[in-house]
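Raw record, unedited: MD-2-related lipid-recognition domain-containing protein
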Amino acid sequence: MISKICIALLCISLLHSCAAFSWKPCTDVESKSSIKDVDLTPDPPFPGSTAKFTIDATADVEIGSGSLDISVAYHGFPIYSQSQDLCEKTACPVKKGPVIVALEEPFPIITPPGPYTVRITAKGKGNDAPQLFCLDVDFNVVPQGSRAQQNIQPESS
């Protein structure tokens, strides 16, 4: 009886961890901002969905223009990277103080379920330009139609 309870608690714990994402500032890179919060919608993402990352930070420097670099790892293996114009994701120039960066990434319908890490880096243009922020976001992509995906509330218009 006790082993059945332990198994049930373990299953509940695993299901809960599948639905939650986590984030942390990069430990190997110096940034010129502090990140207050990161939001991921839907949580968890699923094949065919568009993940919306919203990063709430405070900039310590001004950046006229720059890039937003994204790299994706699946089970720890790099699978995708791209660079986008920072000014398409936030207002430029980025002034000292509060800054919100919004990023949308579509997940193809063939996206395999499992653990992903996305590194998002915002930096100014040029070799000597400051790095605004760097963060790692860990999450699980769940199969479409799974219980974790069904618990997602529809967005209100």
